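To: structure desk
From: M.T.
Subject: fold request, one chain
Message: Could you run this one when you get a chance? Sequence is below, nothing fancy, just the single chain.
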Amino acid sequence: MIALLQRVASAEVRIEGDVVGCIGRGLLVFLCAERGDTVAEGERLLLKVLGLRCFDDAAGRMNRSVQDVAGGLLVVSQFTLAADTGSGNRPGFSRAAAPEEGRRLYEEFVAAARARHPEVAAGRFGAHMQVGLVNDGPVTLWLRIPPQP
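Reply: Done. Structure tokens follow.
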């Protein structure tokens, strides 16, 4: 499972002009399930997201997590994170989970996040979304929890 995290001052996701999710300070989490992923990879990834120390402490060092700063999470599905760009100019997406499985794992991740963290907003799986954000830093981090054999 892959997550691209952006530390944000604020972020929102719109579908057909309507805001369906927004947060203030926190993490924008672009999430992609890969073939072979299970709920277990999602759980491990969520724990990493919640505990990742990417917010500044009083000394200006990245030493605090999104939970430490009471920040929000905005989780947006993005299967393109599994793109294979190794040959040619058109990306391939064979590493991404099948749509039904990707939806299930995305929804499980969001539900688990809501059970563990007080402020979680989300996009809508499979929808054409517009994401707006104010990147704070900028800080952008890539996480991958590979499927277990």
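Reply (cont.): Helices lie at 39-51, 99-116. Let me know if you need anything else for the meeting.
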